[in-house]
């Protein structure tokens, strides 16, 4: 069986070695997009790929591809991968498990595939340094203009364009792959980042789709003044407006129904001085829901609440991400279920509550995801953990699906079942 060709010990050793790049004292990883740490991690992965005979290349968006050539160079490739950037206090498995499992599956593929097989590490999935995230897969799928992506700046004023130029300069010998080439199929393994699989005692999650997501930046504009002399009734206090608005948003949007996920995750106050009435508050909104109609209605309610609770301050609402809920290819999901059963791994369908690059790839090719459990459902934390046996099981299923897909290249030529 294909899973026997997966070397679980090698996969685990590489996961732990990659986690050393950007390691935090608490056992997590800080390896944000296009940082020196991520460049070092990409170099490590390129070295492993070359050991396996895979050809590395970068595209203009900073996505790394590691290719095993197939019989027909004109055939659209099968892509497998995820990302290796992390949150500032991220874990060892989010994204990295998917990239290294893909490397293991492609490197151990038995025989000559009909078309190319390519491992991909997408640029800036997390969005922690440069917001919003998933920039690399958006650029690849033609969902966002590369020039607009290059113009985004981090908190220190460094642009994505500048950071991308540094990335390319660090790999002068790597060829440049065209941006947005056709793809036969995309597969992504990931930790669940939730508690469902662990609670159900299942090892493999067959991901049905990803819930929709909207993000916004809200700016409240007041007027600064002396904390000791300006009367309360004459103040345009941006923090007071934020408190009113945040309460209303949490009550009316966050309490909409049990499936809504509403978060205010970043707040910045100016001038942020203890004896000055705040003149400005800028904050982020992250809104998610599996039903696109509910998501749209909630988004409209956010706009109405901002307009109704900001006075006497001014308010501006800037949409950043507008990603509808999607469904993954049922033919690929059936292959995942069959592979899990063949290798004796308990499996179940599961909806992804978190966003992934596979959402963007599903816009341009048949796509699917495999989930494995993570301890307590915890992710984006330094204590994030996946059991070695579960990592190996997921990689084995991924390898089996890749083998089955390559053995039946006409499978995806037929329409999706409805």
From TrEMBL:
Transmembrane segments: none
Any one GO molecular-function label of the UniProt entry: hydrolase activity
InterPro entries: Amidase_Cbmase, Bact_exopeptidase_dim_dom, Peptidase_M20, Peptidase_M20_dimer
Residue ranges of every copy of the Peptidase M20 dimerisation domain listed in the record: 209-310
SUPFAM superfamilies in alphabetical order: Bacterial exopeptidase dimerisation domain, Zn-dependent exopeptidases
Keywords noted in UniProt: Hydrolase
Superkingdom of the source species: Bacteria
Any Pfam family matching the protein: Peptidase_M20
NCBIfam families: hydantase
Family: Belongs to the peptidase M20 family.
Name of protein: N-carbamoyl-L-amino-acid hydrolase
Source organism of this protein record: Methylobacterium crusticola
